[in-house]
Amino acid sequence: MKIFNILLMVILPTTVLADWETNMPRGVTPTSEVAYDLHMLIFYITVVIGILVFGAMLYSIIYHRKSLGHKPATFHESTKVEIIWTIIPFIILVGMAVPATKALILMEDTRDSEITLKVTGYQWMWQYEYLEDNVSFFSKIDNESNVARRLNSGIEVSKVDHYLRNVDNVVVLPTDTKVRILLTASDVIHAWWVPELGGKKDAIPGYINEMWVDIKKPGIYRGQCAELCGKDHGFMPIVVKAVPKNEYYKWVSIQKSNKVAITK
Amino acid sequence: MSANIDKLHDDHSHTPSGIMRWITTTNHKDIGSMYLWFSLIMFFIGGLMALVIRAELFQPGLQLVVPGFFNQMTTMHALVMIFGAVMPAFVGLANWQLPIMIGAPDMALPRLNNWSFWILPFAFTMMLSTLFFESGGPAAGWTLYPPLSLQGGDSMPFVILSIHLLGLSSILGAINVIATILNMRAPGMTLMKMPIFVWTWLITAFLLIASMPVLAGAITMLLTDRFFGTTFFTASGGGDPVLFQHIFWFFGHPEVYILILPAFGIVSTIIPAFSRKKLFGYDSMVYATASIALLSFIVWAHHMFTVGMPLAGELFFMFTTMLIAVPTGVKVFNWVATMWKGSMTFETPMLFALAFIVLFTVGGFSGLMLAMVPADFQYHDTYFVVAHFHYVLVPGAVFAIIAAVYYWLPKWTGKMYNESLGKLHFWLTTIFVNLTFFPMHFVGLAGMPRRIPDYAVQFADFNAIASVGAFGFGLSQLLFVYILFNTLKQKVTAEDKCWDGAEGLEWTLSSPPPYHSFDKAPKID
Amino acid sequence: MKNFKKTYLSLTLFAVFMFSFSYMLVPLYDIFCEITGLNGKTNQTKVLNINENPAERFVKVKFTSTIANSAPFIFEPVDREMTVQIGKIYNTLYTLTNNSNSIKHATASPSVVPSEDAEYFKKIECFCFSQQEINGLETKELPLQFIIDDDLPLDTKTLILSYTMFNTTDQIGSN
Known about the structure:
The complex is a heterotrimer.
Chain A: H1 2-11, H2 30-63, H3 79-107, E1 115-122, E2 125-130, E3 135-139, H4 143-148, E4 171-174, E5 179-185, E6 190-193, E7 200-203, E8 209-213, E9 219-225, E10 238-243, H5 245-258
Chain B: H1 2-9, H2 19-24, H3 28-56, H4 67-102, H5 110-129, H6 155-183, H7 196-227, H8 241-258, H9 261-275, H10 282-295, H11 311-339, H12 348-371, H13 373-379, H14 383-413, H15 419-446, H16 460-489
Helix pairs in contact in B: 3-4, 3-5, 3-16, 4-5, 4-6, 4-14, 5-6, 6-7, 7-8, 7-9, 7-10, 9-11, 9-12, 9-14, 10-11, 11-12, 12-14, 12-15, 14-15, 15-16
Chain C: H1 2-36, E1 43-44, E2 58-67, E3 73-77, E4 81-85, E5 89-98, E6 104-113, E7 121-125, E8 132-134, E9 139-148, E10 158-167, H2 169-172
Parallel strand pairs in C: 1-7, 2-10
Antiparallel strand pairs in C: 2-4, 3-5, 5-9, 6-8, 6-10, 7-9
């Protein structure tokens, strides 16, 4: 059972299945890609170690059993062996730490961002502010999902468009632009997470956190709040629409002229 | 001293019978039994809450409970399982086994021992009763992060008081354990001759005393922030919600090692017994356990990688967390080396111990993945984390407890359990535990966050499998209860040495052992 | 028997020490943040060594605001962005409006990103953590005077200061 599942995870990571998704997306930003690559590296290393250790166990279980008449050996210590199986794992860990450190330094480097998006978490919706352009709006779960999710709503949720992952106002961001994302909250701790954009940071009331994204591919990317924030924690999704730069600036000027009403 | 004890305890007409026996007992065997029965009951209560969770998560959409109640279930499930099931089970095993393994007549402080136990039902009655309050039970997660945990409900002061009481029970128990082990070993039993289970409990007891008071401090600060105007965790008063997380996890990480070290001791006892071969690298096992305990104090922020820690902090905690894999790996290798070229038989305790090694290691692998910060940004607060800790706790800690019960039950009761039923219990449990928790790795990686009562449709299939697994797992534990009662009904008495390969002082006593054992210290070679 | 008493005493003291340690973590946390400037806690400076010849180095400073817990306030920076020379003193303002009819108390808490550069954002005069009393429907100006320290790392080109305004009326009790 376990072996089948492990094989599945190894063979399938590059295929995208509608359901039965078993792996993290590689995503569309440099940060999501380093995270994915590191994830797969560590995963493969643990698979190899698992095969070795469980293989030894399996061999022993099959051949070193009383019912086969195997007599027990008497050895019960070896300093040499203990040293070897302390040093080798340590070396493997150092090997893992190098790419991990490089990836982390990259992910935490928000310098030279072109635009700044300030995200504020509320119970239970997000507020987005484009700092350079003074555009600001709230974004909450879209009405269709919100009605369908009620206890015993009677609505078949598989028929709802992107159930629980659709919002009324999407976040529009330009592709090929380093975007600095500021995070804070108004009431309790929330967390802003769009898996395909990589990175996740907590939104903490009274404090500002930051992360960055540089979206390489236009598209719609969906995420959710990732820190328990009360009863509707599961119902405050995030939708990011990434468009080419010129389209983005067109959108911004429309927002500015409309002075999008702040709805709550 | 032993002459006095002989005079006092020859005649049992002064010990009460019936319920008063259990309320007033100072006997480590009685108290051990009470802890174990209590733990079993709490395991089912926590399990019921898990089934409410899994029933709701069986399909997308909300069918059974409102989100607020769902959050109460996730919160209480964790509190009950950690503080009501796993920890008391280990204390129960400690109570039964430590004195007889070291040749002592009882624990160092028998009356305090009784009190440590009886705090538990009282504290849990208080905690569970909050579910019936109008504002409901605690719903901020067992981790109680502010500001959310400060937001409301009348349950909060009661939950905080219960956790204080539970902490007190653990601290007093730990003092008892350390005093017993350090001062009451039979002459000739040096520290490095102690059974490994005794070592793991000695180290666990130190962890308890070091960490539980820190939890007490953290929850007291929550209490005063809520009711007495302090601002430890509010920015407007110069405080910081993240400060709570630091204090909590400074307790929380040693806590998870408290939940696993006794399990290591159990596995290190059972594998040698059924391999008919001494534990490989006894000294290394002791040092590895001690290093895990020490390291556990400098890894806490790996539970908090997304709070916005400076890079230097993230790197430090990533490295120390990775480092803990080294002594843990040493233990796994030593277990395999113990089995290697042994002469194994596969009775039920051994089956659970072997499954522990494999499945706990799977949990260890996901733990190593979680340690890598850039990847952790994608795992944090998703079902990948839920999968990780359930693997180390269920086929980890819980399997070890079950293995220990099967292993020592013939000693405690003098009756042998039904081996075929035991094996059936093992296979059902193992299959269902994997069915329940392995798919959680997938949905977590695919993007499903934790602590949500409802999810997007793409997560439906694995959630359905997990829910089926959970119900199967729960039902299989009813078989365990049947096996226990069935054992007690047996007529045939077990031998002193119930297992061919078992070693240790407990096997020199009768099965069951006398109410008072080792009134005179045994000889140790 | 003496061994037992020693064991109990030392273990009890250990438990008591760890309880007080959790409270010690509170100032330790602040000290750590202060020394390293992490967590965006800025320094409030009274005494300055003003460099007579500040370097020709300019950084962008952005100002933003958040209102906590749906307080009935409007709280905005007057200047959303300033180009600022390192080592020179600047003045700016935030405005706070009490949208309700009754008197309120408000307290602002600051935060700076990048957090590792927060220690170089030195506030000479600010309204951080000071209780503001504001009448119903009143608007107040909250001044901020600051200077960016010469030692700001060379590769930092932008600093962002954020204030979160809390309604702290209940903590004081309104008149």
